């Protein structure tokens, strides 16, 4: 069904997944990163089709029922999120390096569906150098209250414990090195 292998990128909160992915894309613009769909309202500055595909709950549920998503989730009991399947399949069929950046639960759902969909997947975990460094990064970014930080750190402990579920673990000591390591995985999988 597809030529390339889907790269599923996961890691705990504040590990720098998005920063590593942005560096990878800056160095290798040929890499395509899937854009998720959501039923939540756009935040200031977010662009439809760039940050997310913003769709109605009715559209989302109809697409979910029709099998149009690789994986879906309800986040915080309110908004639906999901990975549209068709663009992923199209990019893989064209042998375009394809990444899905997703949380641990999403990665597990992809694992459940991959075989039935004929998808070949490489699961990559971005890890912090240490839990203390992860904590420092989370607090240092200053975007969450102390209560939110505590909750995210508890979640991060659970996510870190799942590291052995992944095919490849990349330690994010520096963004440049982690992005280069991620490119090595992609280059190997795609014969680049």
From TrEMBL:
<protein>
    <recommendedName>
        <fullName>Guanylate kinase</fullName>
        <ecNumber>2.7.4.8</ecNumber>
    </recommendedName>
</protein>
<feature type="domain" description="Guanylate kinase-like">
    <location>
        <begin position="4"/>
        <end position="187"/>
    </location>
</feature>
<dbReference type="InterPro" id="IPR017665">
    <property type="entry name" value="Guanylate_kinase"/>
</dbReference>
<dbReference type="Pfam" id="PF00625">
    <property type="entry name" value="Guanylate_kin"/>
</dbReference>
<keyword id="KW-0418">Kinase</keyword>
<feature type="binding site">
    <location>
        <begin position="11"/>
        <end position="18"/>
    </location>
    <ligand>
        <name>ATP</name>
    </ligand>
</feature>
<dbReference type="InterPro" id="IPR008144">
    <property type="entry name" value="Guanylate_kin-like_dom"/>
</dbReference>
<keyword id="KW-0808">Transferase</keyword>
<dbReference type="GO" id="GO:0016301">
    <property type="term" value="F:kinase activity"/>
</dbReference>
<dbReference type="InterPro" id="IPR020590">
    <property type="entry name" value="Guanylate_kinase_CS"/>
</dbReference>
<dbReference type="InterPro" id="IPR008145">
    <property type="entry name" value="GK/Ca_channel_bsu"/>
</dbReference>
<dbReference type="InterPro" id="IPR027417">
    <property type="entry name" value="P-loop_NTPase"/>
</dbReference>
<keyword id="KW-0547">Nucleotide-binding</keyword>
<comment type="similarity">
    <text>Belongs to the guanylate kinase family.</text>
</comment>
<keyword id="KW-0963">Cytoplasm</keyword>
<keyword id="KW-0067">ATP-binding</keyword>
<comment type="function">
    <text>Essential for recycling GMP and indirectly, cGMP.</text>
</comment>
